[in-house]
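TOKENISED FOLD:
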Amino acid sequence: MIPQYLVDFDLQTLPCVETDVIVIGSGIAGLYTAIEAGKDHNVIMITKNALLESNTRYAQGGIAAVTSEDDSPAYHREDTLMAGAGLCSSAAVDVLVNEGPDNVQELIRLGTAFDVENGELALTQEGAHSRRRILHANGDATGFEIVRALAAQVRMHERVQVWEHHFVIDVLNDGNECIGVLLQRPDGQRVYVKAAATILCTGGAGQLYRYTTNPEVATADGIAMAYRAGAQIRDMEFIQFHPTALCYPGAPRFLISEAVRGEGAVLRNIKGERFMEKYHELLELAPRDIVARAIVSEMEETKSTFVYLDITHEPEDMIKHRFPTIYETCMNYGLDMAADWIPVAPAAHYMMGGVKTDLNGESSVPRLFACGEVSSTGVHGANRLASNSLSEAIVFGKRIVNRIRELVPLVAPAAIAYQEQDRTGVPKQAMIERRLKLQKVMVRYAGLRRNEALLHKGLDELKRQLSIFNSELSKKEEFEFANMLTSCLLVTQAALERKESRGAHYREDYPQKDDAVWRKHLLLHRQHEIMEEFSDDV
């Protein structure tokens, strides 16, 4: 049983800080939204780590938006809908492709220095895009450049306070309305932060899996908090595995950007054979789920733990200029991209599902918003089109702020208390061991390829960890584990319910897409079993 709140509290006895807007998280979604909200609201931005630490920081490929004359929002829309495998919201996609370009120009105005060639924005192409529309910065360090520029703006902003190394334990409700958050300061003190609007920008869920391109902070906190608060959670079965993460002894699962394939890299099995022609007409630029499963099939057929990414046929100067970060990282492990084939394998990368929102970013709980990877706006459907995520964050971040301007002031009382019976101390087993076990369960039973027997085993294993919710939690690692366990249960249950293969969700026992029965979303809610919602007509 997952409780409504992770800890006991009485708001009348806690210190209270009031503000207009709370932003939780400091990736592109949090930073951009805080800057926009700070134009006419007082904002407290809360991040559990340092300001610059987020998934965005490690984003390499770029941001997708129509900026060239041979492209159009209609083309971008078509590509997004195709990748989404029938589950995109057509209205949300229209918002993204039409409002993305102006918001990218705003990023530039705020100091983001995208790469330029011959006086024009430099563009590249990635998988499933029909045009070159991916803007990038410093070759393959787009995310870092964006957060650098936005963080500098936030630091200088008179109406935005930044609380680093503070952990938001739970979203607080009065009736069905969000009234703020309960957080824990670095010294362990707990504080009630009251606000008229609370925006989850907490990022993704890569750390649910043993092998991931995501940093340590990506522990699905926002999804779990929203679920406990009674918000609807949608499409949790759709986890995108990036096809090409570095797979080399002693090296982390470092992302080898899809843009490398966009610039001509090919995939080879350990026999040196190109193989993508067996799986899709777009070869290496097929949608990510197809490429990832093709790689797994080749690994199984050749009894290997990796395949090779080969860009050695391209000029060395181009490789160094276009992919300086990837080149340098590979060189640190003795791999020269210009001369060596790079060993790669799929790794958990992006969560398509999350907190269900409307076109203004508001969840089913009034005054609770979600933006970025934590949200499910309907843009990505069953499979995210490459580099649409950064665009989604800024487009819907601005829409959230416009909606907040319409809210009436919060008048909810703070006389709320919560007490769970019989909380005990956390078991002495190291949290790092429990976390690793959880990640291994997800890889083994709810990974890239799934079936009913494996998913049932996974659920059984996860349910054995439910005792954490009867424990007295006090440390960041304990809160993160509780959030990860909650999200793992949601992913596995949704994957079990969807008896078809679609986009990033692949069932070996139901290998075909079934539009007649399953062209619909799965909604999860704390007070109910899984509920179904039919998708928009696309």
